[in-house]
Design brief:
Elements: E1 2-8, E2 11-17, E3 29-30, E4 33-35, E5 44-49, H1 56-59, H2 62-65, H3 77-85, H4 87-98, H5 104-109, H6 116-132, H7 141-165, H8 167-170, H9 180-183, H10 188-206, H11 211-218, H12 221-233, H13 237-245, H14 248-257, H15 262-284, H16 288-294, H17 299-303, H18 307-328, H19 333-351, H20 358-366, H21 368-411
Antiparallel strand pairs: 1-2, 2-5, 3-4, 4-5
Family: Belongs to the UbiA prenyltransferase family.
Main location: membrane
EC number: 2.5.1.39
Length: about 425
C-alpha cells in the first residue's frame, strides 16, 4: 500500500508500510521515486522524490537531491551488525531483557541496553584522571570507579531529559518510536520523578570530591538541560554536546589535584569537544532524512557532502590539542605513540566513511570507544615512563655536577 504524504516540512515523502517479518525489500525505482531503506528497526521506509526541491540549501546537498539506491539489506541484518561491532551492547541488551518488566522501561529510558554513550562520557574523565596522576604512578582506581559510576548515572539522566523534551518528536521517528515515554510505559511525571532520583545519585557521587570539583561539576548541569533544545535552534547541537560530554576532562584533573591546571586541561577539553563533534556528526547522518522532515538541525545537515572535509579539520584540531596538552603535562614517548594511533584511527574512520549508508555510520560511531581506550592506555603508559625519565634526568644532573666540580678542581691554582 502506497501512501503519499504532501507538505511534510519541505519534503515530499512516500512511506511504504510493510510487515517487517514477511518481506525482503529490494531497492528499485518506480514512477521517478527512489525507495531508500534506512537501517533502523522500523517498518516504515522513507523515500525521496526525484524532483528538484524548492529549497536552495537542500538542493545543494547531493544526498538529498538524489539518493542512490544501495545494496539490499534485510532488517534482520541489523542485530548482527551491532553484535559484531559491540559485543558489550548485546550483553547489556540481554540484561535489560531479563530484568523484571516493571523496571525494564526505566532501564531503557537510561539506555542501559546501549552502553556506548556511557563509555564516551567516561573516557574524557579517565584521560584527565590519568594525566593528573603522580609521575610513575597508575591512576587512582577508586577515583576511576567513582567517575565511572558518575558517568553511568549522568548519561542516564541526560537520556531521560532528552526523551522528556523530545517525546513528540520521537513518536514520529521510526528509530525512536518505541522509547518508553512514547509508548506510554513511563509517564512524564514518572520520568520526572526518576530524573530526580538520578540527579540525586549524581549529586551523591559529586559530593565525594573536593569543593572546587563540586562547584565545577555542578556548573555543567545547565549544559545537560539545554542540549536537547539546541537541535531546534542551531545546526551546531553537537558543539553543545561536546561541551557537556567532555566536562570530565576538567573535573578529573581537579578531583586529583584540587584545582585545574588550565594549560593541560583546556587543550584536553578542546580535543574532547572536537572528538565529540566528529563522532556525533557521523551518528547524525543516520537520521538526516527524518531530521529534515521534522525540522531538526544537526552538523550532519550543516556539513552535507563536505562532511569528511569538516570532520578532518576537527580531527586535526583534536590531535594538535592532545599534543599541546601532553607537552604541558610533561608526557613521554608512549603518550605520543597513542596520539599517533588515535590520529590513524580517525583517518581510517573518515577515509572509509559512507555518510549515505546508516550501517557504515553506526559502525564508525561505535568504533570511537577504541579511540578513548587507546588514548587512556597511552596516558597511563606515558605517565609510568615519567619515573624512568625523571630518574635518568636526575642521574644526568648528578653526573654534570660531578664533572663541574672536577673541572673547578683542575683549574684551581694553589696559593
Amino acid at each position: 500500500m502506497m501512501i503519499v504524504i504532501g507538505g511534510c516540512q519541505r519534503l515530499t515523502c512516500v512511506t511504504r508500510v510493510l510487515n517487517s517479518f514477511s518481506h525482503n525489500l529490494k531497492f528499485h525505482m518506480k514512477d521517478d521515486i527512489y525507495i531508500y531503506k534506512k537501517i533502523h528497526t522500523s517498518s516504515a521506509i522513507n523515500t525521496i522524490g526525484n524532483k528538484r526541491h524548492n529549497n536552495e540549501h537542500w538542493n545543494s546537498q547531493p544526498w538529498f537531491r538524489h539518493i542512490q539506491p544501495t545494496s539490499h539489506r534485510r532488517r534482520s541484518d541489523l542485530p548482527e551488525i551491532f553484535h559484531q561491532t559491540n559485543r558489550n551492547a548485546s550483553i547489556a541488551a540481554k540484561l535489560v531483557e531479563k530484568a523484571p518488566s516493571k523496571i525494564q522501561p526505566y532501564m531503557k529510558l537510561m539506555r542501559i541496553d546501549k552502553p556506548i554513550g556511557s563509555w564516551l562520557l567516561f573516557w574524557p574523565c579517565g584521560w584527565s584522571i590519568a594525566m593528573a596522576a603522580p609521575a610513575g604512578a597508575f591512576p587512582d582506581p577508586g577515583m576511576l570507579a567513582l567517575f565511572g559510576i558518575g558517568a553511568f548515572i549522568m548519561r542516564g539522566a541526560g537520556c531521560t531529559i532528552n526523551d522528556m523534551w523530545d517525546k513528540d518528536i520521537d513518536k514520529k521517528v521510526a528509530r525512536t518510536k518505541d522509547r518508553p515515554l512514547v509508548t506510554g510505559e513511563v509517564s512524564q511525571m514518572q520520568a520526572l520523578t526518576f530524573l530526580g532520583g538520578q540527579l540525586s545519585l549524581g549529586l551523591l557521587v559529586l559530593l565525594q570530591l573536593n569543593w572546587y570539583s563540586i562547584i565545577l561539576g555542578a556548573s555543567s548541569l545547565g549544559l545537560v538541560i539545554i542540549y536537547p533544545l539546541m537541535k531546534r535552534i542551531t545546526y551546531w547541537p553537537q558543539l553543545i554536546l561536546g561541551m557537556t560530554f567532555n566536562w570530565g576532562a576538567l573535573l578529573g584533573w581537579s578531583a586529583i589535584q584540587g584545582s585545574c591546571d588550565w594549560s593541560v586541561c583546556l587543550p584536553l577539553y578542546t580535543a574532547g569537544i572536537c572528538w565529540t563533534i566528529l563522532y556525533d556528526t557521523i551518528y547524525a547522518h543516520q537520521d538526516k532524512i527524518d531530521d529534515v522532515l521534522l525540522g531538526i538541525k544537526s552538523t550532519a545537515l550543516k556539513f552535507g557532502d563536505k562532511t569528511k572535509l569538516y570532520l578532518a579539520s576537527f580531527g586535526t584540531t583534536m590531535i594538535s590539542s592532545l599534543v599541546v596538552s601532553g607537552i604541558c603535562a610533561d608526557q613521554t614517548f608512549p603518550y605520543y605513540i597513542a596520539v599517533g594511533l588515535v590520529g590513524s584511527h580517525l583517518f581510517h574512520q573518515l577515509y572509509t566513511l559512507d555518510i549515505n549508508d546508516p550501517s557504515n555510520c553506526a559502525k564508525k560511531f561505535i568504533s570511537n570507544h577504541k579511540v578513548g581506550m587507546i588514548l587512556f592506555a597511552g596516558i597511563v603508559l606515558g605517565n609510568l615512563a615519567k619515573n624512568a625519565l625523571n630518574k635518568r634526568r636526575t642521574d644526568m644532573d648528578k653526573l654534570k655536577n660531578v664533572e663541574r666540580r672536577n673541572l673547578l678542581r683542575e683549574v684551581t691554582v694553589p696559593l
